[in-house]
Amino acid sequence: MQEYDYLKNLVAKIASLTPDIVLVEGTVSRIAREFLLEQGITLVVNTKPSVIERVARCTQAVIFSSADMQIGRPQLGLCHNFYVETLELGRYKKPLMFFDGCAMHLGATVLLRGADVAELKKVKKIMSFMTLVAYNWKLERSFHIDSFALPPESVSEMDNEEDDIFEEAQEILTR
């Protein structure tokens, strides 16, 4: 009876925050699951910490480790649409959670499908590399702006510089 009352109070604390979805790293007791279901709160259990951090970043939520230790009202995340879709990958089924309507500048997901697994792994490596390249470009651009560097006057001026560099590199390689 003591556990029942404790869990009921804990779920009441969580429900007072009015979340629609709660992501949990481990498991949740059956009693607490039933209380959350009664409150209309979707519960996602056994979620990896890295996934919780990504969802928190994209939805601008604050992660807290225990509802007991919560002081004040934490910032809940926001997404306009949440749904789960199951993709069939050959003989495997993979459930995917979608959080739509988050701020685009905070993150994105690229879903790769269509080819065999080996080819998709290659595409994933290339996408990861291109993401790093784009991020590096953004940092370099900020650095140059901070150091008062001016961008080229036109695109053709930039192309000419790239052509000169390419020709110099070819000359060095042919020596």
Task: Report what the structure shows.
Helix 2 links the parallel strand 1 and strand 2. The protein is elongated and about 80 Å long. It has 175 residues and is an alpha+beta fold. Helix 1 (2-16) crosses helix 2. The protein is 49% helix and 14% strand. It contains five helices and four strands. The mean pLDDT is 83. The protein has two domains: 1-108, 3-Layer(bba) Sandwich (GroEL); 110-175, no CATH class. The chain has helices at residues 2-16, 30-38, 49-59, 117-146, 155-174, and strands at 21-23, 42-44, 81-89, 92-100. Strands 1-2 form a two-stranded parallel sheet. It has a two-stranded antiparallel sheet with strand order 3-4.
In short:
The chain has helices at 2-16, 30-38, 49-59, 117-146, 155-174, and strands at residues 21-23, 42-44, 81-89, 92-100.
Describe the secondary structure blueprint for this structure.
Elements (H helix, E strand, L loop, with lengths): L1 H15 L4 E3 L6 H9 L3 E3 L4 H11 L21 E9 L2 E9 L16 H30 L8 H20 L1
Parallel strand pairs: 1-2
Antiparallel strand pairs: 3-4
